[in-house]
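Go through this chain.

——
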Amino acid sequence: QVQLVESGGGLVQAGTSLRLSCVFSGRTFSGLAMGWFRQAPGKEREFVAGISWLGGATTYADAVKDRFTISRDGAKNTLYLQMNSLKPEDTAVYFCNPVRMSNRQSLYDTWGQGTQVTVSS
Protein backbone atom coordinates (compact mmCIF):
# COMPACT_ATOMS: atom_id res chain seq x y z
CA GLN A 1 0.00 0.00 0.00
CA VAL A 2 1.41 3.34 -1.10
CA GLN A 3 1.20 6.41 1.07
CA LEU A 4 2.18 9.83 -0.20
CA VAL A 5 1.77 12.78 2.15
CA GLU A 6 2.44 16.27 0.85
CA SER A 7 2.78 19.36 3.02
CA GLY A 8 4.16 22.88 3.11
CA GLY A 9 1.70 24.73 0.92
CA GLY A 10 0.06 28.02 1.81
CA LEU A 11 -1.09 31.46 0.71
CA VAL A 12 1.82 33.69 -0.26
CA GLN A 13 2.48 36.83 -2.24
CA ALA A 14 4.11 36.82 -5.64
CA GLY A 15 7.88 36.90 -5.48
CA THR A 16 8.15 34.97 -2.24
CA SER A 17 9.17 31.35 -1.55
CA LEU A 18 7.75 28.10 -0.24
CA ARG A 19 9.24 24.68 0.44
CA LEU A 20 7.06 21.65 -0.11
CA SER A 21 7.68 18.23 1.38
CA CYS A 22 6.43 14.77 0.47
CA VAL A 23 6.86 11.74 2.68
CA PHE A 24 6.37 8.41 0.92
CA SER A 25 5.95 5.02 2.53
CA GLY A 26 4.20 1.68 2.41
CA ARG A 27 5.84 0.29 -0.67
CA THR A 28 9.36 0.09 -1.89
CA PHE A 29 10.48 3.20 -3.67
CA SER A 30 13.95 1.83 -4.11
CA GLY A 31 15.38 2.69 -7.49
CA LEU A 32 12.51 4.98 -8.43
CA ALA A 33 12.78 8.54 -9.61
CA MET A 34 10.37 10.87 -7.84
CA GLY A 35 8.48 13.82 -9.18
CA TRP A 36 6.27 16.75 -8.33
CA PHE A 37 3.08 17.41 -10.22
CA ARG A 38 0.47 20.14 -9.91
CA GLN A 39 -3.13 20.69 -10.86
CA ALA A 40 -4.64 24.13 -11.22
CA PRO A 41 -8.42 24.68 -11.14
CA GLY A 42 -10.01 23.54 -14.37
CA LYS A 43 -6.77 22.11 -15.72
CA GLU A 44 -5.22 18.69 -15.97
CA ARG A 45 -2.46 17.59 -13.65
CA GLU A 46 0.93 18.49 -15.07
CA PHE A 47 4.54 17.56 -14.44
CA VAL A 48 6.62 20.08 -12.50
CA ALA A 49 9.96 18.49 -11.63
CA GLY A 50 11.65 15.11 -11.32
CA ILE A 51 14.72 13.71 -9.60
CA SER A 52 16.49 10.41 -10.13
CA TRP A 53 16.83 7.74 -7.46
CA LEU A 54 20.23 8.90 -6.26
CA GLY A 55 19.57 12.54 -7.00
CA GLY A 56 22.16 12.86 -9.72
CA ALA A 57 19.73 13.93 -12.39
CA THR A 58 16.90 16.43 -12.29
CA THR A 59 14.46 17.74 -14.85
CA TYR A 60 12.01 20.63 -14.77
CA ALA A 61 9.06 21.92 -16.67
CA ASP A 62 9.97 25.05 -18.61
CA ALA A 63 7.52 27.11 -16.56
CA VAL A 64 9.44 26.51 -13.33
CA LYS A 65 13.01 26.10 -14.53
CA ASP A 66 15.46 28.37 -12.69
CA ARG A 67 12.88 29.09 -9.98
CA PHE A 68 12.15 25.67 -8.47
CA THR A 69 14.61 23.11 -7.09
CA ILE A 70 13.76 19.48 -6.41
CA SER A 71 15.70 17.38 -3.92
CA ARG A 72 15.30 14.20 -1.90
CA ASP A 73 16.48 12.65 1.33
CA GLY A 74 16.69 8.91 0.83
CA ALA A 75 17.19 8.17 4.50
CA LYS A 76 13.95 9.93 5.34
CA ASN A 77 11.96 8.85 2.27
CA THR A 78 11.22 12.52 1.75
CA LEU A 79 11.00 14.61 -1.39
CA TYR A 80 11.29 18.39 -1.40
CA LEU A 81 10.43 21.23 -3.75
CA GLN A 82 11.96 24.62 -3.07
CA MET A 83 9.88 27.20 -4.90
CA ASN A 84 11.33 30.69 -5.32
CA SER A 85 10.05 33.77 -7.12
CA LEU A 86 6.53 32.42 -7.02
CA LYS A 87 4.02 33.69 -9.57
CA PRO A 88 0.22 33.71 -9.52
CA GLU A 89 0.27 31.08 -12.29
CA ASP A 90 1.99 28.70 -9.86
CA THR A 91 -1.29 28.50 -7.92
CA ALA A 92 -2.31 24.84 -7.84
CA VAL A 93 -2.53 21.74 -5.71
CA TYR A 94 0.88 20.08 -5.67
CA PHE A 95 1.35 16.30 -5.57
CA CYS A 96 4.27 13.89 -5.52
CA ASN A 97 4.54 10.51 -7.22
CA PRO A 98 7.20 8.24 -8.63
CA VAL A 99 7.98 9.36 -12.16
CA ARG A 100 9.48 8.00 -15.35
CA MET A 101 12.09 10.63 -16.17
CA SER A 102 12.14 9.86 -19.89
CA ASN A 103 8.55 10.90 -20.50
CA ARG A 104 7.70 12.70 -17.23
CA GLN A 105 4.75 10.43 -16.57
CA SER A 106 3.70 9.37 -13.08
CA LEU A 107 4.11 5.69 -12.24
CA TYR A 108 1.53 5.04 -9.53
CA ASP A 109 -2.22 5.42 -9.70
CA THR A 110 -2.31 6.25 -6.00
CA TRP A 111 -2.05 9.93 -5.12
CA GLY A 112 -1.89 11.80 -1.86
CA GLN A 113 -4.20 14.60 -0.86
CA GLY A 114 -1.82 17.20 -2.23
CA THR A 115 -0.90 20.55 -0.74
CA GLN A 116 -2.51 23.79 -1.88
CA VAL A 117 -0.27 26.61 -3.05
CA THR A 118 -1.95 29.95 -3.65
CA VAL A 119 0.07 32.89 -4.94
CA SER A 120 -1.51 36.33 -4.81
CA SER A 121 -0.43 39.15 -7.08
